[in-house]
Amino acid sequence: MNRCPKCDSSEVINLNERYKYFDVLRCIKCTYIKYIPIKNCCKNPNPKCKLRVTDNGQRFIYEQCENCGGRIKTPPLSFKKFEFKISGLFDINLINKYHENRNIELEELRTQKKMYDLNNSRYALYHIYLASEEWKEKRELVLKRDNNLCQKCKKEDAEDVHHLTYENFGNEKLTELISVCRKCHIEIHKDD
């Protein structure tokens, strides 16, 4: 990722020092996160040929990383070419630990991504905007314009300001907003 797919910024950093099983790229400008699994097993593979004997006696040679316990190559290696390179038995406990550690790291990255997505969702941005001074000023202008009267029922005092359209959200015109009472506002959104 030379450029951020979210904001097209070129200010992308690699958080490699923190993660062992994934390349993690983060945009400095918008904090977008992308994680990519390492092709081998970990960032510092140290492969050794190991013999694996199954419960039914079949024998296979695999490369197992001595740093993380992961298996380097998926298909078994040829006995003719690699039998003399065997440096021990394939360690099942080590590969199980590798999968456990990799899954912990993956879950951490998924949680970070989920938080990024939530914090940058339309829902979050909507509520951030509603807490802004800009919105508070617009809201007061609309309530004043409508004499604090609900523009739907024309009976109750207006408590809320409703967007007639979200097309220009954050940059809306006063004509795109109306004052409404809480009951009418709930009814309007129920119809939506």
TL;DR?
This protein is an alpha+beta fold. The chain is 33% helix and 21% strand.
Please describe what this structure looks like.
This protein has 192 residues and is an alpha+beta fold. The protein folds into 3 domains: 1-39 and 105-120, no CATH class; 42-97, no CATH class; 133-191, no CATH class. The protein is built from 5 helices and 8 strands, in the order E-E-E-E-E-H-E-H-H-H-E-E-H. The strands form 3 sheets. The chain has a 3-stranded antiparallel beta sheet, with helices on one face. Strands 5-4-6 form a 3-stranded mixed beta sheet, with no helix packed on it. Strands 7-8 form a two-stranded antiparallel sheet. The longest helix has 28 residues, at 92-119. The protein is elongated, with a radius of gyration of 29 Å.
Largest sheet: 3 strands, antiparallel
Helix content: 25-40%
The counted number of beta strands is: 8
Low-confidence stretches: none
The averaged pLDDT comes out at 90
What structural category characterises the helix and strand content?
alpha+beta
Domain count: the total is: 3
- Count of helical segments? 5
Order of helices and strands: EEEEEHEHHHEEH
Our estimate of the beta-strand percent is 15-25%
Radius of gyration: 29 Å
